[in-house]
Amino acid sequence: MYILIVNPAAGNGRGLKLFKQLKKTKEYHRQNIRTFFTKASEGAEALAAELSKIEAPSLKACLVLGGDGTLHEVINGWKPQGRVPICFLPAGSGNDFARGLGVKAGILPLFKAVLRNPEEHHVYLGNYRLPKGEERTFLNNIGIGFDGAVASYADRPAFRIWMRRLHLTKWIYPAALICALPSFKPFEVEVKLDGQAPVMEKVMMITMTNHPYFGGGMKLAPRSDFQHPRMSVILVRALSKQKLLTLFLSVFIGKHTALKEVVEWEADTVHIRTKHETFFQVDGQPSRSDEWLMKKASSKTTFLSNS
């Protein structure tokens, strides 16, 4: 038996289109697949929490058809009694988790392979906590500062509508980056790595990541790897907006780390404070805060793939 969670709105409706393709395959009908649809942008977490209570010894996996945001919610709601792996069927606009995991095949070959002969990937995710909040899991990265401002701009309904009308949904992050740049200003952060003495920096952004990719394929942390038990920390010190734009262009090929304003660390735990509430993003979902505590998960999570 398999559980399939589908976000039909993922990728501006791509989730529903891909599900209709899966439903036409022989594999979908040959297997015992129970399909459930999310009903709101924040519905996947509650749905996963409810479904994980199902006691079925024959449950082989939880399949997730959606974007990184959908998977983020599922991983925070999915708490099965036993060991039940997750398979991500990427249908969003970014799909950075799939890149980090090394998934290269399309949805249909991936779906068929996972049902026939799946390969297990055991990876380290990250945990984070906000003030007065409970501990949660992040799949890809947490970006504070400019990265968060870009994600916030990209999340504006009017902006997304225009990008969809212009058929530019694949370029949402770069377009939002250009739009968010003029009004963004550097800010001060206090950074404490692995309990050491705090360091004060004036920065454009600081990002903690589990694998190299963010923003729909940009190679932010070239040396980062899901198999590594420590997270990568990328800090970009204050610099001109023109140079920041040049930096992001070089991110696509992973050459930005050669710039003197870019600092790369590794850590088990990262504690960050800012003087004022600042934009940040978690797996592409924007919000604001003035304090973050992140740590690498102590154990690995199992995902199914075809490579």
In short:
One of its GO terms (molecular function) is kinase activity. Belongs to the diacylglycerol/lipid kinase family. Helices cover 30% and strands 34% of the residues.
Task: Please outline the helices and strands.
Blueprint: E1 2-6, H1 10-23, H2 26-30, E2 33-37, H3 43-51, E3 61-66, H4 68-77, E4 86-90, H5 96-101, H6 107-116, E5 119-123, E6 126-129, E7 136-138, E8 141-145, H7 146-154, H8 157-165, H9 172-180, E9 187-193, E10 199-209, E11 213-214, E12 218-219, E13 231-237, H10 241-251, E14 262-267, E15 269-282, E16 285-296, E17 301-305
Parallel strand pairs: 1-2, 1-3, 3-4, 4-17
Antiparallel strand pairs: 5-17, 6-7, 6-16, 8-10, 8-15, 9-10, 9-15, 10-13, 11-12, 13-14, 15-16
Helix pairs in contact: 3-4, 7-9
Explain what you see.
The protein is α+β, with helices and mostly antiparallel strands. It has two domains: 2-117, Rossmann fold (3-Layer(aba) Sandwich), CATH 3.40.50; 127-296, Tumour Suppressor Smad4 (Sandwich), CATH 2.60.200.40. It is built from ten helices and 17 strands. It has helices spanning 10-23, 26-30, 43-51, 68-77, 96-101, 107-116, 146-154, 157-165, 172-180, 241-251; strands at residues 2-6, 33-37, 61-66, 86-90, 119-123, 126-129, 136-138, 141-145, 187-193, 199-209, 213-214, 218-219, 231-237, 262-267, 269-282, 285-296, 301-305. Strands 6, 7, 8, 9, 10, 13, 14, 15 and 16 form a nine-stranded antiparallel β-sheet that branches. A six-stranded mixed β-sheet has the order 2-1-3-4-17-5, sandwiched between helices. A hairpin with a 5-residue loop joins strand 9 and strand 10. The longest helix is centred in the first third of the chain and has 14 residues, at 10-23. The radius of gyration is 19 Å and the shape is globular. The mean pLDDT is 91. One of its GO terms (biological process) is phospholipid biosynthetic process. Keywords: ATP-binding, Kinase, Lipid biosynthesis, Lipid metabolism, Nucleotide-binding, Phospholipid biosynthesis, Phospholipid metabolism, Transferase. Pfam families: DAGK_cat, YegS_C.
